[in-house]
TrEMBL record:
The keyword Protease applies. Residues 1-11 have a biased composition (Low complexity). It holds the Pfam family Peptidase_C48. InterPro entries: Nep1/2-like (IPR044613), Papain-like_cys_pep_sf (IPR038765), Peptidase_C48_C (IPR003653). It comes from Drosophila arizonae (Fruit fly). Residues 36-196 form the Ubiquitin-like protease family profile domain. This is Sentrin-specific protease 8-like. Keywords: Hydrolase, Protease, Thiol protease. The keyword Hydrolase applies. Coiled coil: none annotated.
Length: 235
């Protein structure tokens, strides 16, 4: 497994209203989307055999939401910082965040990055992906490390399913490519999010999506570095 986070999560009441990160000469911001910034220290994790921190997953999910699928109102991408807070919110707080702020009842598909931290703060040792699909009446769980994140994912699903009006949806552990090392769970989550969104765009369903190929995993770090370089030109 791989450490899931290296920066603290926002408080439960201000998940989407964090202050814009300040620039630092020692660790400059290389790219920024909305309130999700990547610093040099974050991007350096992409260059070697390192686990990905929450900043990278937050940034990539923001990229999917704000750029790649900006015109697709069927999708909601839930960042790790947001999902970690959701685990500890009551129904009133969840309603304010998901229904009032993000119109989740109008979203057929939610892509949720989950880690196995047992607190509101940073931590955890593994990332996985939950996809809530209204058309399939299911919560699909994709875990690249033998289902080790099933308990955390089910706990999150149980906390949010009433607010999502998906009380009767099934929780389904899905077959997916397993990581060949102990640090690539974050890369697997990013690649699975890519593949599943592409599939859903064509078929309006998650059912039937095929496992990733190992070559996709191997190529993703360089692709992410190029993406950060491209987006960084707009800072």
């Amino acid at each position: 497994m791989c450490p899931a986070s290296s920066s603290s999560s926002s408080s439960t009441t201000n998940v989407m209203h964090t202050k814009k990160p300040k620039a630092s000469r020692a660790d400059p911001i290389l790219a920024s989307l909305s309130k999700n910034a990547l610093r040099m220290s974050d991007v350096q994790l992409l260059h070697g055999p390192h686990w990905l921190n929450d900043a990278i997953l937050n940034f990539y999910f923001a990229y999917l939401e704000e750029i790649k699928y900006k015109s697709n109102t069927d999708f909601l991408f839930v960042t790790p910082e947001m999902s970690q807070c959701m685990l500890y919110m009551d129904d009133k707080e969840l309603h304010g965040l998901l229904v009032s702020q993000h119109q989740v009842l109008r979203k057929p598909f939610l892509f949720i990055a989950v880690n196995d931290s047992q607190s509101r703060e940073r931590g955890g040792a593994h990332w996985s992906l939950v996809v809530a699909s209204r058309p399939d009446k299911s919560f699909f769980h994709f875990d690249s490390y033998g289902g080790s994140n099933t308990s955390s994912s089910m706990e999150l699903v149980n906390n949010i399913k009433d607010v999502l009006d998906m009380q009767h949806a099934r929780f389904r552990g899905m077959r997916c490519l397993q990581q060949s090392n102990d640090y690539d769970c974050g890369i697997h989550v990013i690649c699975m999010a890519d593949q599943i969104t592409d599939y859903v765009n064509r078929y309006d369903s998650v059912d039937g999506v095929q496992p990733l190929h190992q070559d996709v995993i191997k190529a993703k770090r360089n692709q992410l570095i190029k993406l950060v370089t491209t987006l960084g030109q707009h800072i």
